[in-house]
Structures are given as structure tokens and as C-alpha cells.
Amino acid sequence: MPSGHRAQWKGFLRFGEVSCGVALYTAASTSERITFNTINKATGNRVNRIFIDSETEDPVPKELQTKGFEIDNGQYIIIDPEEVAATIPESNKTFEVEAFIPCSDVDDVYFDKPYYLTPDKMGGDAFAALRDGMKKSKVTAIARTVLFRRMRTVLIRPHGKGLIATTLNYDYEVRSSKKAFEGMPKIKIEGEMLDLAKHIISTKKGEFDPAAFDDRYEAALADLVKAKMEGRSLPKPKKVEVSKPNNLLAALRESAGMMKAADNKPKRTAANANKGTGRERAARGEASKAASSGAAPRRKAS
After folding, report:
1. Rounded CA gap, 119 and 122, in Å?
2. CA triple 31-93-7, angle to 5 deg
3. What are the distances in angstroms from CA 229 to CA 45, 95, 178?
4. How far apart are CA 121 and CA 207, in angstroms?
5. What is the dihedral of CA 56, 57, 60, 65, to 10 degrees?
6. How many helices (H) and strands (E) does the chain have?
7. How far apart are CA 22 and CA 256, in angstroms?
8. What does each of the 302 residues of the chain score in pLDDT, given as a tens digit?
9. Of the candidates 140, 148, 130, which has an alpha carbon nearest to the alpha carbon of residue 10?
10. What does 1-34 look like in DSSP terms, one character per residue?
11. Are residues 168 and 31 in contact, defined by beta-carbon separation less than 8 angstroms?
12. Contact 209, 269 (CB under 8 A)
């Protein structure tokens, strides 16, 4: 990884009788988001968080804070942090591959957090052999190890020159889709309505390009910060009107007509889309500069 990026974890990747040293790096980060502090409206001062005893209302210093499991209303079993640490399974810092499975076998609802997995110092040949072997076989690897003081199941996939290790949620952590959708009415769409929906979908087909998508919420926050600094207000967003069943067909017909008209216009490429977001990028840049001078909410350190 480039200088300045510190490995989150270092250990070994083992498949069969082959092992290689690996390093794990965070693949997704929120450090560039605009963040806010909690402020006392009356004084304009920043508010600090203090832990208070629920009965005596006295502040509790960090050295007196411990863990507890509630067994009854207001009754707790005290658990010492060292006892928690002792329950963590032993680990030899090794991703032990348990099985290779087809790429489509894992429902992405189980995906938790992605990490980049790279060879660490020695072992590049073994790492490359696993990576290329999985690519050719079109499989992913299921492995287990202790990560960040917890036993985790990890899905390992080839990605460019390296691998991506995605921690997986346990089955008990994922809500049942059957229960989530059980209140939905059974509606069957057919005829013209279905044809119009299919037409709209066909005219909007494209390819996934993450660079073409801007964080509109982050851009809106930057605009808000800039407007506040300049003493002006932002226009209120238009209210979204939900299509009602009695005018849904008319809305689909109108959308299909708009799609046909759009087909005659030059296509907007991902590169042009990025150029078109200059205002949002500029606003974010000004908010960031203001943040560094202390005039606006600060960003987290990278």
C-alpha cells in the first residue's frame, strides 16, 4: 500500500499446506466526511460527554467504568474487561481457508466491511498463485480468524493485483427477508403498465462507475456551511410526490415519452458527469478550507 497507510492487521493466509504473509488495509473510510460538534446554544461552547451514575448522578471517571450484563431490571453481573478478553478464541493470526465456493453463493446481505489484502514482505508467489487460481476457477474463499478481538468469518475475492477480504455478518445478525416483506400485498403488474416499466428500464441501462457518483448529501452540507458563513439561506427542496395507483399509468407513459426524447440527445459520459459536478466539488473545497481555519465544522483526520 502507499506510504501513509498503516496495516490494520498482519498475519498469514493459509490454504492447504501453503502459507504466505499478508497485510490487511481498510478499503472504505469515512474520514473525508464533514463532521459536526455538539454545541451549547446558550454559550456557543462545545459540549463534552460525561458518564453519569444513573442513581447518584455523580460523574464516573474512566478507571471506575466497567462492563455489566443486565439480568433483571436494574440488576447487573459485573464483567471485568480482562474476563472479556479471556473469552476471545486463541488465534495464530492466520486466515485459514475452509472452503472455496462459487462467487454467486454468498448473498451480499451478509457483507459487513471490505478490506484490501496484500502480500506482506515474503510470500508474494504463494499469494499470486491463490489469487490467479481463484480467478481461473471463478471462486471465492471462506476463511476464519480473530480480527479486532472477535472471531470473524471472511469472504476473500480476487481484485486487481490483490485480494479483497470482506467480513461477513453472522446468520443471527441478519434479519429475515421473509419477515421484512411479509406485510407487502400481492400485486401482479402486466399489460401496458409492465411494458412501459420494461421500456424505461431498457433506456436507462448502463455500467457501474463509482467515480460518476457524487455524495449529494456531503455536497449539500458543504453548501449549507458556505451559506451560513456568507449569511444567506438555501432554497428549500421540492417535495417529492409519490405516484398514486390511479395516475401511475399516466406517469409511466410520460416517463416513457421522456426517455424516447432523451435518446435523441448526446449521451453524457461518466467523465462529463464528473466535470458537471464542479460546483459541488468547489463548495466542498471551500467548506474544507474554512474547517481548517476553525470557521466551520471540522473534518476527521485522514
Report:
1. 7
2. 25
3. 18, 50, 49
4. 36
5. 70
6. 8, 9
7. 52
8. 545 578 889 989 999 888 899 999 998 877 778 888 999 999 999 999 899 999 999 999 999 998 888 988 778 888 887 787 777 666 668 899 999 999 888 888 999 999 999 998 766 899 999 999 999 999 999 999 888 878 889 999 999 999 999 999 999 899 888 888 888 888 888 888 888 888 888 887 777 777 777 767 777 778 888 887 888 887 777 776 766 766 777 877 887 776 555 555 555 544 444 444 444 455 455 555 544 444 444 444 33
9. 148
10. --TTPPPSEEEEEEETTEEEEEEEEES---TTSB
11. no
12. no
3-state helix, strand and coil shares in percent for the chain, rounded to the nearest 5: 35, 25, 40
The interaxial angle of helices 191-203 and 248-263, nearest 10 deg, is 30
Spatial CB neighbours of 124, under 8 Å, sequence gap ≥ 6? 20
How many other β-carbons are positioned within 10 Å of the β-carbon of residue 133? Answer: 14
- Collapse the DSSP code of 268 into the 3-class scheme (helix H, G, I; strand E, B; otherwise coil) and give the result: coil
Q: Which three cell numbers stand for residue 296?
A: 466551520
Cell triple for 110? 451478509
Cell for 104? Answer: 454467486
The position carrying cell 470482506 is: 166
Kindly report whether the global pTM for this prediction surpasses the value 0.85: no
Residue ranges and CATH numbers for the domains of the chain are 9-31+88-173 (2.40.290.10), 191-292 (no CATH)
Amino acid at 256: A
